Fold each of these.
Amino acid sequence: MAFTGFSADAVAFYEGLAADNSKTYWQAHKAIYDTEVKGAMLALLGELADFGTFHVFRPYNDVRFAKGRPPYKEQIGAVGESEGGAVHYVAFSANGLIAGSGYYHMANDQLERFREAVDDEHRGAEVAALCTAMEKKGYSLSAMDELKTAPRGYAKDHPRIAILRRKGLSRRSSGRPRRGCTPRPWSSASVTRGTGLPR
């Protein structure tokens, strides 16, 4: 099945779930989830095969050890990893679509090489310029974790200290539902270009 976008029914499904996150709501609307949400996500992932194999997260929260946590996730998400370890992520909810890629959490040897590159006058300047360009295009940069101070062996006043403190580097973009523009707010083209997986 070709991906034609997430429908207004998919947006409404998550709006309803946010208002009534219960087994009763879920069972009454599961057919919409299966076709308009999960079905659309699987179709999208089929068109993103160049980024590797994706895993779709379960729609249920683990409530055994989290008191007060709602039983159902209010978004559908998928993650994949391409050759070389870059992670790709896509999520859809009533708030819109999020897509991103990069090294969200680097292994120790990757982190060491990354920091050496950022520290280097020429390569570091190139990394900083790429980060600035991405932010100007509307991407947000993130990592799973970052240090509160300079890593060991690097000066606190390093010109690229903000990048050096990160334990990974990824970028993401997001798009909100555009009601009234089209029956299906997103297409595969919009996902892979405007709000989609950055290469």
Note: The CA atoms of residues 101 and 198 lie 6 Å apart.
Amino acid sequence: MKFKRTDLFKVVPDGASTVATAAVTAVIGLLLWQTPLQAADKTGEAGFKKHCAACHAGGGNIIKADKTLSRKDREKHGIKTAKDIVKTMRKPGEGMTAFDKKTVSDKEATAIADYIIRTFK
């Protein structure tokens, strides 16, 4: 079977049903969408293990037991979004190490914050 160059970009053959076209499009979309999310998850998890896990193993807090990474505890202390977590990483309260942009880039800090929100419910 010979292909033209333009055929390489066709995933669904001519005459395919609308449902088949939608299904193939959805699968491709999920695959393309999942890859960056998985990479961010691994970046966030790796960053968490490197910078946070010593004090926040398993989402806990070895310094201040009432300030765990659980959603309930975060929200009780006004930390509701990834942006709030990054802000806390940059200027934490007493007992927590500050992570400046040289130590943890904004991109890595955001990945860590997203990981915390997804992981510690």
Note: The helical segments are 18-51, 53-56, 71-76, 82-90, 106-119.
Amino acid sequence: MADNTIQTADDKNFEAEVLTASNAQPVMVDFWAEWCRPCHMLAPTVAEIAHDYAGKLKVMKLNVDEAMNSAGRYRVQGIPTLLLFKNGQVVEQIVGAVPKEQITKALERTSDNLRAKLPRRVARKGAARFFLFGFAYRCGC
């Protein structure tokens, strides 16, 4: 479920791998469970973000069934939950299987060194954009 840029966190290494490490660079922790379908749906997006932000963001996965203390400490009540840590503190929380754009906006909002590092997608000529319920959609008409 994890690729080579994503490490695993548990109750034993959470302090060192997440809280202490977040003093040097932001750390995003994906709280998930093996039985959770939305978690599996979000996994490829988390892997893409880990690849896109390699060297700028540390990405960890924490199985809530195996690390109940860490999940309880941060009051993770629904999964998947993404927590972004900076200087040992939670600075952003995202709950649910959300689009990649929503996660990258949260990353950019909370960390200056993650801003504008990825190439922007250019809309095709003639592609119309519209907004529905806060999401941007493209029409290739």
Note: The first helix runs from residue 14 to 20.
